[in-house]
Amino acid sequence: MASTSLAGEIRDTELHDALSERYLSYALSTIMARSLPDVRDGLKPVHRRILWAMRQLKLDPGSGYKKCARVVGDVIGKYHPHGDASIYEALVRLAQDFAVRYPLIDGQGNFGNVDGDNAAAMRYTESRLTTVARALMDGIESDTVDFRDTYDGEGEEPVVLPSRFPNLLANGSTGIAVGMATSIPPHNVGELCDAMRLIIAQPDCSIDALATAVQGPDFPTGGVLVETAENIRQAYATGRGSFRLRARWEKEALPLGAYQIVVTEIPYMVPKARLIEKIAELLEEKKLPLLADIREESAEQIRLVFEPKTRNVDPDVLMESLFRSTDLEVRIPLNLNVIDSKGVPRVLSLKEALREFLDHRLVVLERRSRNRLDEISRRMEILRGQMVVYLNVDEVIRIIREADAPKPALIERFDLTDLQAEAILNLRLRALHKLEQIAIQQELDALALEATGIETLLADEGLRWQAIDREVVEINEEFGRQTELGRRRTELGGAPSAIIVPVHALVEREPVTVLCSDKGWIRAVKGHNVPLADQRYKEGDGPRFALETQTTDRLLIFASNGRFFTLGIDKLPGGRGHGEPLKLMIDLPNEAEIVALRIYRPGEKMMLVSTDGRGFIVNQDEAQAQTRAGKQVMNPAEKVTARFCLPFTGDALALVGENRKLLILPLADIPEMTRGRGVILQKYKDGGLADAKIITLAEGLNWPSGSRVRTEPDLTAWKTGRGSSGRMVPNGFPRPTRFEG
Predict the structure, then answer these.
(1) Among 377, 379, 541, 639, which residue has the least CB neighbours within 10 Å?
(2) Alpha-helical runs (H) found in 286-349
């Protein structure tokens, strides 16, 4: 008996090729069939299938509701073989008036809320289509779009909807595919209609003209758009950008000169409950010292009440601190990445997206017109056949009564088509009166006139664009700014004025002592006059730096590679434990080490010196770094490191080399620079710099000697000028060669 292989055909394939082929298939499936919307109707496949299934269930705006479970079941069984949870979530979002600017589904029941609560189970909720959804599918029965087989081949579904409504930009879309994503905020339909009419009238119009019509997104939850006109124009020109959105607030006066701030609209897609929770956490952590309390007084409308610490707090400063610290201000990204009319995913500008929609409407108009011509031709053919009946009614009746096969007999006797003969056989006797003959002739004349108009329309592109323009006007009248649904909800505030928020407005001012160990572990211990001897360090580590400061201050960190780093004192770990390594907070290379820690004081100066005797003066303002990578201020030569960062506590710089030669330089002789290698301060024949110190010339040079402190009052002999090697140190100068012993 011959054996059969259960494995089937086996082919040798490189793993790289097999993985590439399969991952590409997965990526294309995710991009085309799940994550990116179509530019023509603005829908992803799951949304399109939900709307189509609801239309098949006759859930029109004027009909009754049906259980969402019924809709989800039809979508899964006929069109979208995926999980019921994902389909129901998509359906719910289309019904949420706080998530979708122009809802496509009219929901009845609990469909979630702005607090972030989930919708009820699908067996408890009901739904039907809205007038906006009806506009999306208007004319779909007139062969305006292509259909394809469903996944099981038992039915058909539309490839795209006719979309009389500009859904892509009106409702927006978000999605993450493989290697690409889309993020389109919602816009006002009235403004979109103005922009489309402008494109129809002036196909070469500029993006500036379109940005005048479409002034920015329009979110269902309102808020205030605080973005410059130039940034908005640039985002629409490229299809990429972002929009800054703030909560809407107002000041309410209270007795005795007090006041409170009331927020009535929060930014788009920010859960209210989570927002309140976050603000409460910041209050608990004392990171909002200008705010005394927050109260939730919302009913049907949002009402969040903020109480300032005192009546003297400027409300603008208070709100600016909240905008910087919480989701009362968010950035809404724009990434107009869609599947275009050719089925290619790409990023479009605002003009390209509107143009693609208008081109789609032109195709729909042409297909609808041709379909209507076919219907007219068919109807006129039937009517002409019926006219034969009225002209030869007795003969027709005789043939039908006597002929074994009346249909072929009628066709042969009166030279009819199959369609005409079938229509004659289906006529009712009561339709054979004389008045019906007159009505048929009138209908023939009307259909001929309509056909002539359609043929004229199809022959003239200008007339077709005029028809599209009238459609846009109708959409504007139905959903535009003069309607309750279409009124603009998001205020166009323009860029906010530069409000300076003091640091203490964001951080509670408290005294702390910053401790940093030899190995670079840093922490902030509460209070001043901390007993340093009682502080614990890791085994093998020990104390190095200790600075008394405030939580509102900033710390400047100078490293041996010449870079400065900046950290907020409030960002440092607390005093419990051993702290954290500085290298986790800043991008400090392994070969570099910490040279000095300084508390930032605006306008103060520092003296930087490297091991080769070079240096310069730098202003602390120039040393501030904005990122973890720090700021390169000193550029040491190869095999040279930055060695000192000295505060200005005197009027002269004392330098001593490893060769024990001392040099005194007035600080007035040293240049101030923003960055560089520095000038030569002291030359060395052998070795390099041993120590450096800022001194006061009038007080002389001090150094420890045993239990005493020795002083050299006259330093004239060592003031030999910048760039010299100096003279040997005074008698009794300590070994090793250090000013502090």
Answers:
(1) 639
(2) 315-325
Residue 114: partners with Cβ closer than 8 Å, 6 or more residues away: 98, 221, 266, 271, 272, 302
From the candidates 23, 26, 102, 124, which is the catalytic residue?
A: 124
Which residues, in sequence order, are CB contacts of 176 under 8 Å at separation 6+? 35
Q: Are 169 and 353 in contact (CB under 8 A)?
A: yes
Pairing of strands 291-296, 304-308: antiparallel
pLDDT at 1: 45
Domains in the chain and their CATH numbers? 43-160 (3.90.199.10), 248-327 (3.30.1360.40), 355-479 (1.10.268.10), 509-599 (no CATH), 601-741 (2.120.10.90)
* pLDDT at position 246: 95
Closest of 155, 158, 154, 184 to residue 169, by C-alpha: 184
User: Which segments of the chain have a pLDDT < 70?
Assistant: 1-8, 23-24, 26-33, 429-435, 497-507, 741
Structure tokens at 122: 């699908």
Q: In whole angstroms, give the CA distance from residue 249 to residue 266.
A: 9
Summarize pLDDT for 515-531 with one digit per residue, the tens.
999 999 999 998 898 88
* Cβ(628)–Cβ(596) below 8 Å: no
Whole-number pLDDT of residue 384 = 86
Rounded Cα gap, residues 450 and 460, in angstroms: 16
Beta bridge partners of residue 413, listed in sequence order: none
SS3 annotation, 411-474: HHHHCCCHHHHHHHHCCCHHHHCHHHHHHHHHHHHHHHHHHHHHHHHHHCHHHHHHHHHHHHHH
Q: Is the preceding omega at residue 736 within 30 degrees of 0, hence cis?
A: yes
Torsion of CA 90, 92, 94, 96, to 10 degrees: -140
What local confidence, expressed as pLDDT, does residue 431 receive? 63
Residues comprising the chain, all counted = 741
* 287-293-298 Cα angle (round to 5): 120
Distance separating alpha carbons of residues 368 and 365, to the nearest angstrom? 5
Which residue in 251, 247, 316, 322 sits closest to 283, CA to CA? 322
Q: Answer yes or no: 268 catalytic.
A: no
Per the CB < 8 A criterion, the answer to whether 595 and 564 are in contact is no
